[in-house]
């Protein structure tokens, strides 16, 4: 049966080889059987720019993804808050399509809104301001014009700041804002919603305006790999 798979928040990094091995295995087994694989952000722990494609670890990831797409599984990538600098060179090397965030698509007959999920966490105003800044073309051009080593050092600094800031933030602030979810669903005519980012895997059902919207939150891959499988009968979350 035709089916699509959805994953996010793998946070692949050379420091966590076990996550990459689980992912590589998933690609050649489960994902190779699927019609499509959607990676909804934070595939990488960080992405400093496409000139980092020469890095041996990154090369391994790209070649695993290129093998999947050349084998006939359609591959879709979306930016996360960690890897929003993934550019055309990377996307092309993977044989992938880059999806904007949000993207509304009909998936096996069901209108489905795909997002990374960070924009739903609108209570985190400090992050939302930061996000706006780093998504500006001018900011990105300036950042990418610096040498790769300098960019990596800067990313490390930003991560440290973010770790410190997160200690001050409550669990509620770092989760989705209920009103943002409802507004998003209403604006898009009540689709099914699939997103990651919060690392709080669940199926939420939103009943509103006479509609029933499923919201699937994808799991991260820190402790265990997992994916969402959707076909014409619906979706199922599966642990590897
Ligand atoms: Mn994220």
Mean pLDDT: 97
- Give the helices and strands as they follow along the chain: EHEHEHEEEHHHHEEEEE
Q: What would CATH call the class of the domain at 4-118 and 191-239?
A: Alpha Beta
CATH topology of the domain at 4-118 and 191-239: Purple Acid Phosphatase, chain A, domain 2
Provide the low-confidence segments as ranges: none
Q: From the 3D coordinates, which CATH architecture of the domain at 4-118 and 191-239 would you assign?
A: 4-Layer Sandwich
Count of helical stretches: 7
For the terminal residues, how far apart are their CA atoms?
20 Å
Main sheet: strand order: 4-3-2-1-10-11
Apparent shape: globular
List ligands, each type once. manganese (II) ion
| CATH homologous superfamily grouping of the domain at 4-118 and 191-239 | Metallo-dependent phosphatases
Structural class, judged by helices and strands? alpha/beta
The major pleated sheet works out as:
6 strands, mixed
Number-wise, the strands total 11
Q: How is the secondary structure organized here?
A:
Elements: E1 4-7, H1 17-28, E2 36-39, H2 56-70, E3 74-78, H3 88-94, E4 97-99, E5 103-107, E6 110-114, H4 125-134, H5 137-144, H6 148-168, H7 178-187, E7 192-195, E8 202-208, E9 211-217, E10 226-231, E11 234-239
Parallel strand pairs: 1-2, 2-3, 3-4, 6-7, 7-9
Antiparallel strand pairs: 1-10, 5-6, 8-9, 10-11
